[in-house]
Design goal:
296 residues, alpha/beta, 12 helices, 5 strands, 42% helix
Length: 296
């Protein structure tokens, strides 16, 4: 579980699972960022102590994001059955003021971190014929939000990574899914410390506790998980599927090269969502196109 600082979804997930486990060895790791403050492993250690198990937490300090991350961790002989990739940071910056350093740092922590964590785990899962990958994306990455171009891009990348892992892993007993949570975490509230009092925002934070997101993470990490390449919004106890759909669209005359004027004329038909499908992979769209063209 990456991203286990106190108040984050990874730690709450770990804590709830340990509460219902008599005996388990659970390696727990956290990526280092300069926004978390203090030892980010302390939250996980406190949860382990409260769970009164013999679960293990990693090392005595931070685990930095780097190539070879998993190989450097001190449990080389353990099977890798579940990965929850939750490490991240958050900040709001106007796009015109966003620096290259801020852009790269956001992608490094979110997207590079997810890659460094999931690739060696994927190899182990493929070899053993089983695995569960739970990636933490964001509704900002799916739907967009002002002042978060770098954050939204990083989380959108995780949505793409999840789809690739799900497609590649399906034949090997690996299921990869993602949650798009809304919750009151230290990362989120810390970014809003200077805001004016707002009763609506305060009421939202009261409802969107991490514990009301955790059940979805727990299910997707379990052997009972029956879905692959699914994305779920999880907020305030409301769980809903998020998907990328494909409309029926407009097919131009095959004997004529379409023009921009044709696009403008048929834009309403192109934009129509009636009869959309949800491709399971890129090949689904190509097969559908081949059928539409009469090639298949």
């Amino acid at each position: 579980v990456a991203g286990v600082a106190a108040g984050l979804f990874g730690a709450r997930f770990l804590g709830l699972r340990l509460m219902h486990t008599d005996r388990i060895d659970v390696p727990v790791y956290a990526f280092q960022t300069d926004l978390t403050g203090g030892d980010v492993l302390q939250g996980a250690r406190r949860l382990v102590e409260r769970a009164r198990t013999n679960a293990r937490t990693a090392g005595c300090g931070h685990v930095e994001i780097h190539e070879g991350l998993m190989e450097a961790l001190p449990f080389p002989d353990a099977s890798v059955d579940v990965v929850v990739s939750n490490a991240g940071i958050y900040e709001m910056v106007p796009f015109e003021e966003l620096s290259v350093e801020q852009w790269r740092r956001m992608l490094q922590i979110h997207l590079d971190g997810a890659f460094y964590l999931s690739q060696p785990a994927f190899r182990a899962m493929r070899a053993q014929g089983y695995g569960r990958l739970v990636m933490v994306a964001s509704q900002i990455g799916a739907f967009g939000q002002e002042l978060t171009a770098h954050y939204g891009s990083a989380k959108g990348g995780i949505i793409g990574l999840t789809g690739a892992l799900a497609t590649e892993g399906a034949a090997h007993g690996i299921r990869a899914n993602a949650i798009l949570p809304i919750g009151q975490t230290r990362m989120m509230t810390g970014s809003l410390e200077d805001r004016e009092p707002n009763p609506i925002v305060d009421a939202l934070f009261t409802e969107t506790t991490p514990e009301r997101v955790v059940p979805m993470v727990t299910y997707l990490a379990s052997r009972d998980c029956a879905v692959n390449k699914h994305f779920y919004s999880a907020a305030a106890g409301r769980f809903a599927r998020v998907f990328v759909g494909l409309g029926a669209g407009w097919l131009a005359d095959r004997d004529v090269t379409p023009t921009a004027e044709d696009i403008a004329e048929h834009l309403e038909e192109i934009d129509d969502l009636e009869g959309f499908t949800v491709p399971t992979n890129s090949q689904d769209e190509i097969i559908g196109l081949l059928k539409l063209l009469g090639i298949l």
